[in-house]
Amino acid sequence: MKPESIRVIQEEHGTIAAIAKSLGMMIERGPRDDLPGYFEVVGAMLFYIDEFPERLHHPKETELLFPKVAQRVPEIAKLIGQLDKEHTRGEFAIGDLQYLLKAWELLGPTRREAFEVAAKHHLQFYMEHIRLEETEIIPAAMRVLDAGDWEEVDAAFASNVDPLNGKYPRDPIYDRLFTRIVMRAPAPIGLG
Ligand SMILES: [Fe+2]
Ligand SMILES: [Fe+2]
What we know:
There is one protein chain. The chain is mostly helical. The chain has a single domain, classed as Four Helix Bundle (Hemerythrin (Met), subunit A). Helix content is 80%, strand content 0%. The chain has seven helices and no strands. The protein has helices at residues 4-29, 35-51, 53-72, 77-107, 112-144, 147-159, 172-184. Helix 2 packs antiparallel against helix 7 and helix 3 (53-72) runs antiparallel to helix 6 (147-159). The longest helix is centred in the middle third of the chain and has 33 residues, at 112-144. The chain is elongated.
């Protein structure tokens, strides 16, 4: 049976990938005739990525799961080091994207391309990050961690406290925000 911590990580990857995909589609499609709607929806998507994966998902990986895997599989420690760095880099990159979107909104279309190029680049980087975790780290973890390890990691996932918001476990506020974004995004990206 799949450990609870892995189930949580994979479920979160699914949510992140769904938002990333919608964001990519929004950027591909462009604002069309609804610029305010575009800024609102794209801004909410970026906020979601900043708030949920950057602050809740990555810390669980970097602090709770990765160190155990690196300890048991020295060959993978280098890749884990890279992914940890990407967690830090991602946090800054998402802040930059929020800034670039604001610049377009407030300064006009001359700032559009900078946002679009940076956003596409970041989405690519992000999906590759998740792919490496899914294809390299999770299989390695499943191979080398024993029942005792999983008990420890699962317990930490369930109870460890994040100083930022008081918990690691997923809060329903994120699901509500996710639903709001999907409702507001234009069809066929969302239901709006
Ligand atoms: Fe990650
Ligand atoms: Fe991840």
